[in-house]
Design a protein that fits this description.
Keywords: Membrane, Transmembrane, Transmembrane helix. With 364 residues, this protein is mostly helical. It has one domain: NCX, central ion-binding region (A middle domain of Talin 1). It is built from twelve helices and two strands. The longest helix has 35 residues.
């Protein structure tokens, strides 16, 4: 009981502590001891974010709970991208593209693969709704192709870039498609995104602890946002140390972006794995694919607006090897989703694609 009380207090104290530490370290080059403290606090903020996200999810139910966490993480991530682009000059031309693609690979292969592996190893077979998950995947395929592949084949602007009218179209299309999916997920066909049992019975309500009060839910929502700001901000604070380590190891600079994306997506990863352990793979997939869609659907409009006052080009088109990985991800994910049931093999396939992405990031 005492341990539980200490843990509960830690979940409330860590996010404000992360914000205080962020205020004193942002924009500076802190010494190694401060970076070590920031790393510990960042880990605590990640765990706190997962805890408070689960409180909110328990109150509002699925798929709203997954949507809250995915949307909150992405909004803060987009704000970070735009901030970095504002101070990055020419070097930030590919920042949005690299960050979004890293998020796609980590969520669609890393989170999905680990969730399927955990769920199927623990429960024999992982079950989910193919109707809802398939519509999410088709939305991701459309968003990714229009935003990250099409710029390589246009001729109005030099290089893998959109002209201004094309960028406006891509931004509006991304925003509208994401909004249409959210409406489908939460209003018209909500049942398609609810967890199911092995016998195909939809789980409308969870049979465990009593739902928190409205006041407790709002408090957890506020602390959740603080925790996510702390996670993203402290990831930025420790990024110079990560960058130095990457350079000392002789690895490409793109590895830094991958490491930062892994840190930022930690809350969703842990939440997805916890859901998979409870035999709620649909919740895990809602988190993974929802994060992917939010990352593309919100980042592209944000950088399109920001590009009007930011100097330098905006490169969105993927390189050849990354387009191959994107195509392979979509093919494997489609074959995973169609049956509505998955085994450890499917989890291993997704993790193999993620491993290929990480390998190419280190050794292009």
């Amino acid at each position: 009981m005492i341990v539980r009380k200490v843990t509960d207090r830690w979940m409330w104290v860590t996010p404000p502590l992360a914000i205080v530490l962020l205020v004193f370290t942002l924009g500076q080059h802190p010494p190694g001891a401060v970076v070590a403290v920031a790393s510990v606090v960042l880990g605590g903020a990640v765990l706190a974010a997962v805890h408070h996200a689960e409180v909110v999810a328990h109150r509002v139910g699925e798929p709203f709970g997954s949507l809250v966490l995915a949307l909150a993480v992405t909004v803060i991530e987009v704000a970070l991208i735009v901030t970095l682009m504002a101070g990055g000059g020419e070097k930030s031309a590919t920042l949005a593209r690299d960050t979004v693609f890293a998020a796609v690979m980590i969520t669609c292969n890393g989170i999905v693969g680990l969730s399927i592996l955990f769920g199927s190893l623990r429960h024999g077979i992982a079950v989910f709704r193919a109707e809802g998950t398939g519509s999410a995947l088709s939305t991701i395929a459309t968003l990714a192709t229009l935003s990250l592949v099409l710029p390589n084949f246009t001729t109005s602007a030099p290089g893998p870039e959109f002209s201004t009218p094309q960028l406006v179209f891509a931004a509006v299309a991304a925003l509208l498609l994401y909004g249409l999916f959210v409406a489908t997920q939460t209003v018209r066909h909500r049942d398609y995104f609810l967890p199911v049992t092995k016998h195909g019975v939809v789980v409308h309500t969870e049979e465990h602890a009593e739902a928190p009060s409205g006041r407790a839910t709002l408090a957890s929502l506020g602390v959740l946002l603080l925790a996510l700001v702390g996670v993203v901000g402290l990831a930025k604070v420790i990024s110079p140390t990560i960058e130095s380590g990457v350079e000392a190891a002789g690895m490409p600079h793109a590895v830094v972006g991958v490491v930062i994306a892994l840190l930022v997506l930690l809350p969703e990863t842990i939440a997805a794995l916890r859901a998979a352990r409870r035999d709620r793979l649909q919740t895990s997939l809602n988190l993974a694919f929802g994060s992917t869609m939010a990352s593309i659907g919100l980042t592209v409009p944000a950088v399109a607006i920001a590009s009007y006052w930011l100097s330098g080009p905006l490169v969105l088109g993927l390189g050849a090897s990354h387009m191959v990985l994107l195509a392979l991800t979509l093919v494997v994910a489609t074959l995973t989703v169609i049956p509505g049931r998955a085994t450890p093999l499917q989890g291993g396939l997704h993790l193999a694609v993620l491993a290929a992405f990480l390998e190419l990031a280190v050794v292009p």
